[in-house]
Amino acid sequence: MLVANWNAAVGPTDTIWHLGDVCRRLADLPALLAALHGTKHLLRGNNDPAEIGDVPGWASVRDYAEIEGEGRRLVLCHYPFRSWNGQHRGAINLHGHSHGRLKPMPRQYDVGVDAQGFLPVRLAKLL
Known about the structure:
By secondary structure, the protein is of the alpha/beta class. Helices cover about 15% and strands about 25% of the residues. The protein contains three helices and seven strands; from the N terminus they run H-E-H-E-E-E-E-E-E-H. The chain has helices at about 1-10, 30-35, 125, and strands at about 15-20, 40-45, 60, 65-70, 70-75, 90-95, 110. A four-stranded mixed β-sheet has the order 4-5-6-7, with no helix packed on it. The chain has a three-stranded parallel β-sheet with strand order 1-2-3, with no helix packed on it. The two termini are about 25 Å apart.
């Protein structure tokens, strides 16, 4: 179901930022990444093994990123922040980890699939 939902929402040329906790078994990951559409960047989560960055199929693997999207600064990490770079200047924090259990804050979004109906979420929808 997760692969079908991903591929229904993500095109082959789309860029995806996966915010961690990708899979339980590293041995399953190469086939999973090959089955998923898009250029995939990973921000490691607490359940991702150190070797996850060695698996082919990632465009990049790191712990934190700041990027521009839809004219906004996006601060991305597996973990939610209480404060983040540019928070009071319109920057948005996208995170996973909390499974939809945190009290919402302005310009902060839990984009984990369990908090988003088991679908990837597009930035335009959040904005």
